[in-house]
């Protein structure tokens, strides 16, 4: 595999233990944008080493979510479990060079050690009991773990592209396990080896991994000493997303999986991408930034240092913006299955320019479109019924008579005709349009009344009005 050669290589490395959540999607997006901005590569690594918790379903959900968001990768995904031999090989190199050592401490011994540390109110960590000790004769042949010999004096400094300079005393970092007694690699080792072998130059991830960076760097530096070609990557640890209450975003805050934003909330991918971009990254006070512009503008400098708060209202506003911008045919396709009635796709598409001016999500669009596909007889909402009281019905009857005589079924002709009628009756146009809307749509909100008349057509419009007039009772 490649080593760092000057081109930017980033990666998204999800653990497939659940759906693609918003935080993960944003991390993927930042990696993607950064690589695209620099003309580099972005890679995908599925960190499936936690075999008990990793599922194929989660892998599929993550791939599906990324695909929906338009976050594409430049190579086939790397599966971490498939690389266990290579991870072990690196552990053995570290062992040979003396940068790692065999630890024969048993689980019971380690438990006693932790109990003592707990009692003495000391931090729980491996005390280094096998660090400078060769295996004694009776230990030979017994199971052992391989531990990294981390520096115990001095400090490690990371110039994080988001967090700035972060310093940790090396004494804080214990000699953690690289290879378990059964020979399987630990997550910490796997990440470092994979990042190197995939040629990653920039590690952009959640700041919950900042501590890990201080544990991962000693492996990188030891390997660089041993064989060269293991440069420090640039780290960029992005603050996590919080809910409106300031707590870390979790299920408690409602939808966290990208799929539920698509399926349940009817969000367009470009709206979510724009929202996630702005969640933690800023370019002045610009809110609406499309994909191409985002690629052109994205830089790690623009990533904020403090956690960002998730704001559903902002997301919905952006969604409204992107719905208005979206192609009508595409919208009709997305909206059709959300309408609980058989749909005429052409009609839906023709109605879209009017419908989309007033919707913030796909369900609102579906709701707004429903009237087009109702079949007589249909019920009216309570509010619509109220508009068809006695006066309302009288006006509707007059409108009916007028429209029946109307052969030029176009917006200008219908508009002129009803305006003239309103003047004759000395009424505002609204007084005629309201009962008409109630009869035509069964509701009180819809696109402009003339658009409704055109979309429904002459025959259907007259039939709907007639049905209402023939209807017994108040409406
Ligand atoms: N697999 C880790 C996660 O899903 C990310 C590890 C990394 O980016 O280094 O949180």
Could you characterize what this model shows?
By secondary structure, this protein is mainly α. It folds into four domains: 138 residues, HUPs (Rossmann fold, 3-Layer(aba) Sandwich); 159 residues, 3-Layer(aba) Sandwich (Rossmann fold), CATH 3.40.50.620; 48 residues; 89 residues, Arc Repressor Mutant, subunit A (Orthogonal Bundle). Helices cover 46% and strands 10% of the residues. The strands form five sheets. It has a three-stranded parallel beta sheet with strand order 1-2-3. Strands 4-5-8 form a three-stranded antiparallel beta sheet. Helix 1 packs across helix 9 and helix 17 packs parallel to helix 18. It is elongated, with a radius of gyration of 32 Å. The relative contact order is 0.09. The structure holds glutamic acid. The site of glutamic acid has 7 residues, from loops.
Descriptive terms for the model:
mainly alpha, Rossmann fold, 19 helices, binds glutamic acid, 475 residues, 4 domains, 46% helix, 10% strand
In CATH, the architecture of the largest domain is: 3-Layer(aba) Sandwich
Largest sheet strand order = 1-2-3
The CATH first-level class of the largest domain comes to Alpha Beta
DSSP summary: helix tally = 19
Structural class by sheet pairing and helices: mainly alpha
Choose one word for the global shape.
elongated
User: At the fourth CATH level, what is the homologous superfamily of the largest domain?
Assistant: HUPs
């Amino acid at each position: 595999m490649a080593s760092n050669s000057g081109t930017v290589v980033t990666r998204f490395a999800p653990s497939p233990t659940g759906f693609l959540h918003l935080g993960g999607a944003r991390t993927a997006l930042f990696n993607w944008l950064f690589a695209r901005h620099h003309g580099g590569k972005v890679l995908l690594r599925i960190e499936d080493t936690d075999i008990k918790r990793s599922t194929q379903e989660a892998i599929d959900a993550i791939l599906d979510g990324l695909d929906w968001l338009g976050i594409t990768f430049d190579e086939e995904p790397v599966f971490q479990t498939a690389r266990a031999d290579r991870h072990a090989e690196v552990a053995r190199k570290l062992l040979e060079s003396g940068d790692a050592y065999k630890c024969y401490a048993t689980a019971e011994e380690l438990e006693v050690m932790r109990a003592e540390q707990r009692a003495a109110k000391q931090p729980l960590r491996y005390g280094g009991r096998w660090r400078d000790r060769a295996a004694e004769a009776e230990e030979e042949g017994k199971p052992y773990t391989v531990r990294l010999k981390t520096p115990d004096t001095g400090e490690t400094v990371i110039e994080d592209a988001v967090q700035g300079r972060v310093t940790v005393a090396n004494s804080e970092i214990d000699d953690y396990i690289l290879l378990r007694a059964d020979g399987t690699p630990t997550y910490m080792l796997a990440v470092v080896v994979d990042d190197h072998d995939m040629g990653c130059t920039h590690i952009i991830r959640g700041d919950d991994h900042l501590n890990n960076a201080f544990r991962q760097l000693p492996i990188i530096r030891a390997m660089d000493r041993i064989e060269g070609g293991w440069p420090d990557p640039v780290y960029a640890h992005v603050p996590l997303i919080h809910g409106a209450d300031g707590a870390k975003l979790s299920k408690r805050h409602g939808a966290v999986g990208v799929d539920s934003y698509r399926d349940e909330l009817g969000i367009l991918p470009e709206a979510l991408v724009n929202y996630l971009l702005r969640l933690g990254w800023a370019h002045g006070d610009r809110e609406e930034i499309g994909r191409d512009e985002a690629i052109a503008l994205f830089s790690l400098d623009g990533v904020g240092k403090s956690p960002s708060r998730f704001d559903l209202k902002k997301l919905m506003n952006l969604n409204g913006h992107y719905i208005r911008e979206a192609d009508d045919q595409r919208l009709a396709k997305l909206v059709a299955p959300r309408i609980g009635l058989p749909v005429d796709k052409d009609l839906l598409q023709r109605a879209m320019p009017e419908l989309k001016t007033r919707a913030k999500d796909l369900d609102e669009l579906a709701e707004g479109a429903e009237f087009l596909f109702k079949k007589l007889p249909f019920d009216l909402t309570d509010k619509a019924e109220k508009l068809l009281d006695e006066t309302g019905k009288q006006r509707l009857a007059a409108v009916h008579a007028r429209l029946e005589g109307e052969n030029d079924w176009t917006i200008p002709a219908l508009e002129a005709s009803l305006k003239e009628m309103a003047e004759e009756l000395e009424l505002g146009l609204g007084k005629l349009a309201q009962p008409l809307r109630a009869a035509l749509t069964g509701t009180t909100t819809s696109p402009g009344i003339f658009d409704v008349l055109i979309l429904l057509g002459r025959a259907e419009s007259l039939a709907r009005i007639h049905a209402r007039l023939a209807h017994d009772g108040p409406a």
